[in-house]
Specification:
The chain is mainly β and 465 residues long. It has 1 helix and 32 strands. Strand 18 and strand 19 form a beta hairpin.
Length: 465
């Protein structure tokens, strides 16, 4: 859209997870501005740089055509909605001098225009959310009317609010674990249940299960996030069963910075795969030496516990979620526990057992809960089996008691349709990072599962779009 003047207010960051609201008051020229009068003013977002000085192609913009006294909503340079600027009182025919509107730009790609006086939505449209954009105001003043002032911005005010977009995972890629000495990809029998955590120096470590053991790898180069190296020879697993009839599964890796050690929670199973108990092991900072092992939860004849996931609150309280099976084992649900020392746990009555269930999701099975404390919110992801395909769902809580499914219970991550995770995704784990969440998972291609990595922007204290 051509213009002869404008203002570049600078870049707008984080549109993928930030809701931007522009409160704009427009002033219209007198009504004697005829057909040859070209006066307009617009405010919106553009991908262009300040050097593009003669033509603006807005991603989304709200504007006023002064001569026609029409409001315009523009997307990618195309007018997608227009409505009268004037608002007449009943029985009066006086032109409106100024009028305010709010342009709301959401991270899910929906732009709406609201009338702040009535709260009504005047127009809406979809747009492609840019990774980078600038806030600009621009207009034209060709052959203006005989009386001033012309079309103008009377007031402009911008507000932002962080939004949580549970399904906005991006940068999906495979995660490769290399042997410490040969630097060749670790193959193993069937690596599963990856768990990602960071130490105080920002070094990432990954625990995973294979052949009844638990192995640990670390990321040596942050610039190569998809590559980790085993901390020891593949034959020297960090954790291996003390009894020949048992095997370890479902590791949850936690960095305990106060003591400078790694905690690993895991399921102990018998030779037939039945969950016997959940244990916690303490590893030194190198993740090579086991310093302690303790039983934290045990299964009973009527209830088995497995697949632990653990996170710590800002107040220092530890929270654990497990998958519990009751009765004949066909009824699986997630249960919440809390602890002050990470060893002695007490059950917490919560809505999680009722909100999340295979039947409620239209699934035949749920497993692999993964918990993270991000800002003021508890974030939970888990896997669900729909027919023959696994997908990842999400839930959230403010207090670990009341839980809500995100995305209306729909999956937040599914098979990509190509590559290592084309047929499905399962076995997720979450890691909270500054301004983001990282997800590791097992990608399914019909042959063998391979680890994957994804990331999404997630501001602390975010709201819904």
């Amino acid at each position: 859209m051509s213009h002869d003047s404008g203002v570049d207010f600078g870049p707008v960051e984080g549109l993928g997870w930030t809701r931007l609201t522009l409160h704009v008051t427009f002033g219209a020229p007198p009504r004697d501005c005829g057909a040859g009068c070209i006066e307009s003013v617009h405010v919106g977002l553009t991908r262009q740089t300040p050097t593009d000085a003669t033509d603006v192609r807005p991603v989304v913009a709200l504007g006023l055509s002064g001569a026609r006294r029409q409001m315009l909503l523009t997307v990618e340079g195309t007018i997608v909605a227009q409505w009268p600027f004037d608002r007449y009182s009943e029985g009066r025919d006086e032109p409106t001098q100024t009028r305010a509107f709010s342009l709301i730009v959401r991270p899910d790609g929906v732009a709406t225009v609201q009338d702040p006086d009535t709260g009504a939505t005047v127009a809406s449209a979809r747009f492609e959310v840019p990774t980078r954009a600038r806030l600009v105001a621009y207009g034209r003043n060709v052959n203006p009317g005989p009386r001033r002032p012309g079309a103008r911005l009377v007031e402009l005010r911008a507000e932002t609010a962080a939004c949580d977009m549970p399904a906005s995972w991006s940068g999906r890629s495979s995660l490769v674990v290399l042997d410490q000495y040969t630097r060749r990809p670790y193959e193993g029998s069937q690596p599963s249940a990856p768990s990602l955590a960071y130490d105080d120096d920002g070094v990432a470590a990954l625990a995973f299960a294979d052949e009844g053991r638990i192995l640990v790898a670390k990321r040596p180069d942050p610039a190569r996030p998809g590559e980790l190296i085993l901390v020891d020879d593949a034959g020297n697993a960090a954790l291996r069963p003390t009894a020949e009839t048992e095997r370890y599964d479902d590791p949850e890796l936690v960095w305990y910075g106060t003591l400078g050690v790694w905690w690993v929670y895991y399921t102990v199973r018998d030779a037939e795969g039945r969950a016997l108990r959940i244990e916690r092991a303490v590893l030194d900072a190198s993740a090579r030496r086991v310093e302690d092992r303790q039983i934290v939860l045990s299964s009973s004849e009527s209830r088995t516990v497995e697949m632990p996931t653990v996170a710590r609150s800002h107040a220092g309280i530890w929270v654990m979620i497990v998958r519990a099976r009751v009765g004949d084992g066909t009824d699986a649900r997630f249960s919440v526990y809390r602890s002050i020392d990470g060893v002695s746990w007490e059950a917490v009555p919560s809505s999680l057992e009722f909100v999340i269930g295979a039947r409620a999701l239209g699934a035949s099975e749920i497993d692999a809960p993964a918990l993270a404390r991000h800002g003021d919110t508890w974030q939970l992801v888990f896997a669900a089996l729909h027919g023959t395909r696994w997908a990842i769902h999400a839930a959230a809580s403010d207090d670990i008691i009341g839980w809500r499914l995100l995305e209306d219970g729909n999956p937040v991550l599914t098979g990509s349709g190509e590559g290592f995770d084309r047929l499905g995704v399962r076995g997720p784990d979450l890691a909270s990072r500054p301004g983001a969440l990282e997800l590791v998972y097992v990608g399914l291609d019909g042959a063998r599962g391979r680890f994957g990595l994804a990331r999404r922007d997630a501001a602390t204290g975010g709201t819904r779009p």
